[in-house]
Design a protein that fits this description.
Layout (H helix, E strand, L loop, with lengths): L1 H18 L35 E5 L3 E5 L8 E6 L3 E7 L5 E5 L7 E5 L3 E4 L15 E9 L3 E4 L5 E11 L3 E9 L8 E5 L3 E11 L3 E11 L3 E12 L1
Length: about 240
Amino acid sequence: MKRLVLLAGLVLLGLTACRGESTEPAAMPSTTSTSAPTLAPTPVLPTPAPTPEPVTIQLTSERVNCRIGPGTFYQTINELGQGRSLRVEGRNDASNWWYVRDPGNPGGFCWVSAEVSQTQGDIDQLPVIPPPMAAVTDVRLRVEPNRIVVGCNQFPQTVFFEAQVTTDGPTLLTWRWEVSNGAVSDVGSLIFQEAGTQVINDYYQINAPNEYWVKLYILTPNQREDQITFPVSCTP
């Protein structure tokens, strides 16, 4: 009997070895860890500065000159009536002239004295506007005589040139003359204390008949050129 039990055990052991069953532990299924997304902080926007209230003036005189610059020595470009309300865009460094929108010129500006106006608003917020550079606005040339007819033995003849020059403010005017035969004058200068018209003149000797021209070159405060012609003829 003991022999049969031993034989049965050996048979069972052989069958188990033939199946080659693995004794390694079964692999555990992998798990993926998913972390929660990180949210960026909401940016804090700065609070916009309050928009300053516009500054206005009301005119207090019956007639108010609106000028090209901050001073009575500048040219008047518009005349406004009492009670007119104007938007102020700037001031001069002394805060006694206001840079305003010109109601007679859309998109344009002019200056009004603080003495003839009443302000409404904070003038300290207004920017300081530098005064404009004055300019030559008009030139009128004249030659005397404007026509010469003489005997051919009566040369030389003297011709006088005159120019009425207008500026819109105080400035230093410099100029020179040029004649068509190549003669050029020295540079002249003249001070304008205020806007207005002044006269400059010169003369030249003509030695022969011809069709002449004379030019006036304005060098400062702004460059411009004006010309006038005059004929010179002679009879034998």
